[in-house]
Structure formats: C-alpha cells, structure tokens
Amino acid sequence: MTNHLETFRSRRLACSRCDTEFICERSGQCWCAMEPALLPMPFNSEDCLCRDCLRQLAANQRPGTRVQDVNERWTVSAVLLDMDGTLLDTERVYHHSLVTALNAFGLADAIAISHAMIGLPGPECERILCAHYGAALPLADFNRAFAAKRDDLLREGLPLKSGVIELLDALRAADCPMAIVTSSSRRTADQHLTLGGIRSRFTTLLTRDDVARGKPSPDLYLLAAERLGVAPNNCIAIEDSNPGIASAHAAGTIPIMVPDLVEPSAETRSKCAAVLPDLHAVLTLLRERGGLGARGAG
After folding, report:
1. What are the tens digits of pLDDT across the range 190-212?
2. Residues 121 and 143 grouped into a single domain
C-alpha cells in the first residue's frame, strides 16, 4: 500500500491486460491488498490489474516461481508476532515523543530520523541519533526529555492495534503456538504488554536482551522458532516495519507485513508473503492459506 491510497471513491475499472472489469476501492480494504505483495500498488487506473493478472505478473517476477505457488497453502506450525506497531499502538507514542524532544533541542530532520528508527533496537537508535547530530545532541538530556514525554503519553493508556484480540483468540482456539519477537528490552516488553492487557496471553517472549544481534538480523526469529520447537519455514511472522521484515525473511519464516507509520520499501515488499491493511485481514489470510481453525478448539 502507499500513502496515495488514503481517500478514493470506488470505481469500476477494466484490467489493463485482459479487459476483465472489477471494482477498485483503493482504500486499503480492496481485494488487491490481500494478494502477495510482490509488486508496488498501482498509482493510476491504467496500471490496475484484475486478481488473476496480478497473480500472473507476481509469479513471473519471482525466478523459479510457478503461478500456482502464489496460491499454495501454508504449513503453519506457529505464529511469531512483533509487538510495537504490530500488536500495540506504541510507535505513535515513540514517534511523538522523539519528535517533541528533538524539536525542544532545536534539532532538524525530526520526522525523517524518527521514521528511520522504527523497528530498530534502542541502542541502534541511539547510534543513529549520535551519527546524525554529533556533538549538537546532548544525549543524556535528550533521553530524559524523550522518556518524560513517552511516560506522560503512556499514562493515558496503550491501545491495541485493530484486530489484535480477534487474532489472538483465533490462534488460541486453533491451539497454534505463538511468541512475541520484539526489538524492545524485556522490561519494556513486559510493561507494554501489561499496559495493553495481553501479557498473560504469551508464555514465549523474545526480546533484544536474548540475542547479541537484534533486528534486522535473523537471530530473534531463529531463536523464537527454536524455543517453540518448530521449523522457521513453518512460522508466520507478522511485522509492521522494514527492519522487522528483513529479520523475518532472513530467518526463513513466512513474513506478513501490516504497515504502521512507514510504508514498505520496494525491497521489503519483495520479501513479504503479503502486505495487508490490518490484523483482521491477516486472520482472514491465515484461515484461507494456513488452515487456521483446523486444529480444533484449545
């Protein structure tokens, strides 16, 4: 999906390849958002393709991929979930707190720097800040200002992303193992999951404290699969960020992206099994291609 798709009336279009007519909403809820995200979404009506032609083109762009591979069913042994921006609406808290603190110190490029840090561990974010601002950044004072604003916002509550409870309930009902895989520290993960009211749902929690290399390295996802006793290629990984998808892809999982503040890059799209508008759509896709619900009630 792209930022161009925010407000658009439904239209009847003809596929630019085969002339099949279809309805285009371009709202983030259209059927094309459910397709494997191997192509950038179209910007102009003449670029639009019907479902079959989009699948054909997607398959042709992947060396060695057969058309029927796009529709093959997944063997899902576990679901691995990023936390911030995927389950919890914390990225907006971090973004607002970071931008506010940078502006308070009169530092430029606040929004761009904030977006560049999404999905990365805290120490890596500090390195980015220091590399960009150098001596102009009083790091200790900045960290205090950021933390104060962040904590102030968190006192107002930590909302869940749309579809979280429905997805977690379905995974539990299907007796599907799941784990949190986050770039946050264990202390922060425990705090945020508790604030969101879902900490008790997870017995397996992997954080940056558990590995030497955080995302975009594959280490966290490989360790999560090992802890659950499943093969990485039978794990669905749900992420909201470019570094998160890079990590999940490098680990050999099946990555699904639900973008939060930043849209996927072309490189990230090429690594995704799907890019979807929300977790409701993720659950629909898991039921269609992963047989979720077939294991019986749990």
Report:
1. 999 998 999 999 999 999 999 99
2. yes
